[in-house]
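As the work plan foresaw, our protein records have gained a structure token line. A representative record is set out beneath this paragraph:
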Amino acid sequence: MRRGFSLLWEPRVLTDVIVPTAVVSMRDFFALRKAWPDDLPGSEGDALVVAGLDGCLDSLSEQDAVTWLETDLKSVVLSFQEHYEGQAALILWLASGRTRIGMDLADEEYFWKIGAGRDGARLPLGRYLWGGAEADVARILVSEEKDPDFDGNAYVGLHHPRIS
């Protein structure tokens, strides 16, 4: 597993990283900040998988979601990175990520689809979570094919080496 910060949505990838019962909730992730464990539950002690980002974003108003991403979530992610000195993987599990995360091809910005349909409201996820450092975001492709489809089934998530 790549060290850094990832958003994943394919179950076949998740089970390669962690036993599903060891995935922590968003609430538990925030609680861990008080005392980060020496050994993490995934990837032989080098990864933490957190579920619930989608539920948090869906339960907040658009403005509250922006504030929460920019301040609360980002500060916990930065604390994780600092504690593990960039030598661990933080993975946010988004079961609905394939259908809810999109990228604006014109400016290559990632967004969270708030509403249903193509023209629904969009939350600029990359701008608020990665501080605009979307140029460092890479798609995670998992496939046996030599040249997998960049937007097809091989596309299982996003990876950012380090949020600053």
